[in-house]
């Protein structure tokens, strides 16, 4: 097997195979952070709307995926899990050992990715869409011949769009359920909070602003104080007050159980992808 070649950190090109919403979020976040200029980010898509989206912030857009694979040093596969194998096999001749390969597809194991590409210099990363605003939660797992230097490059790249963690790949289905799919749960919570505000008499714009800022503030408290979420909840819920009355209603509705079930359902769906 060929020896891994260090990626030229000052000049490397980043390619996206798949130009969907998550790829767009990551690309925007990387450009905004200044880690890479848009001129060194490349993707491919035939749909004019998607091409225009990436071109609008300076990303080069090719006609075909093989052009991206040939031209880039770091290649992120951001296609749907159901077609990852097909795409990797199509691009296999271009996925040489000097290239660093990254999959952000849910449920697809490193062992399969490495076999399909005949390249063990692969990573799995599970980021999420808040990467577009520099607030991603990304979990990274190294595979095969990927070196610690490669890992540091991944830390730098994904650290530029939020926080990163290293974890064993066996945890990735659960990671998908919590942070990969998690933004959708929180968007629904914000929408519901705002709807409650409207029902209680607030104008829509004020209700949405208050709901979003409240979620942001609460999350920041958890991250910055290091306190357990339950303790922070208790700090708000004074005896006989409004908050404990609201919490009572949430408990009657199974609020926590529903969220737990949602995470497990997403994790189980991720496991199903690895069996196909």
TrEMBL record:
NADP(+) binds at residues 17-22. NADPH binds at residue 65. This is Pyrroline-5-carboxylate reductase. Keywords: Amino-acid biosynthesis, Cytoplasm, NADP, Oxidoreductase, Proline biosynthesis. Coiled coil: none annotated. Gene3D superfamilies: NAD(P)-binding Rossmann-like Domain (3.40.50.720), ProC C-terminal domain-like (1.10.3730.10). Residues 13-107 form the Pyrroline-5-carboxylate reductase catalytic N-terminal domain. Belongs to the pyrroline-5-carboxylate reductase family. It catalyses: L-proline + NADP(+) = (S)-1-pyrroline-5-carboxylate + NADPH + 2 H(+); L-proline + NAD(+) = (S)-1-pyrroline-5-carboxylate + NADH + 2 H(+).
């Amino acid at each position: 097997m060929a020896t891994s070649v260090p990626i030229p950190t000052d000049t490397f090109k980043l390619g996206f195979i798949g130009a969907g919403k998550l790829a767009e979020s990551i690309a925007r976040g990387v450009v905004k952070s200044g880690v890479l200029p848009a001129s060194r980010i490349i993707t491919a898509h035939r749909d004019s709307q998607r091409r225009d989206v990436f071109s609008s912030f300076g990303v080069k857009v090719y006609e075909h995926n093989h052009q991206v694979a040939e031209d880039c040093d770091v290649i992120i596969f951001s296609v749907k899990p159901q077609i990852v194998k097909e795409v990797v096999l199509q691009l296999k001749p271009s996925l040489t050992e000097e290239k660093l390969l990254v999959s952000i597809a849910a449920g697809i194991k490193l062992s399969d990715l490495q076999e399909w590409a005949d390249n063990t210099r692969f990573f799995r990363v599970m980021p999420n869409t808040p990467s577009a605003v520099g607030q991603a939660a990304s979990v990274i797992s190294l595979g095969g011949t990927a070196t610690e230097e490669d890992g540091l490059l991944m830390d730098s790249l994904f650290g530029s769009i939020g926080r990163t963690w290293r974890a064993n790949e066996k945890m990735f289905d659960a990671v998908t359920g919590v942070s990969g799919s998690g933004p959708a749960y929180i968007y629904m919570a914000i929408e519901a909070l705002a709807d409650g505000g409207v029902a209680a008499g607030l104008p829509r714009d004020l209700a949405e602003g208050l709901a979003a800022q409240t979620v942001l503030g609460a999350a920041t408290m958890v991250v910055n104080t290091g306190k357990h979420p339950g303790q922070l909840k208790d700090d708000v819920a004074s005896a006989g007050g409004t908050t404990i009355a609201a919490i009572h209603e949430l408990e009657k509705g199974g609020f926590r159980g529903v969220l737990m079930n949602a995470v497990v359902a997403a994790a189980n769906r991720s496991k199903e992808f690895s069996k196909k």
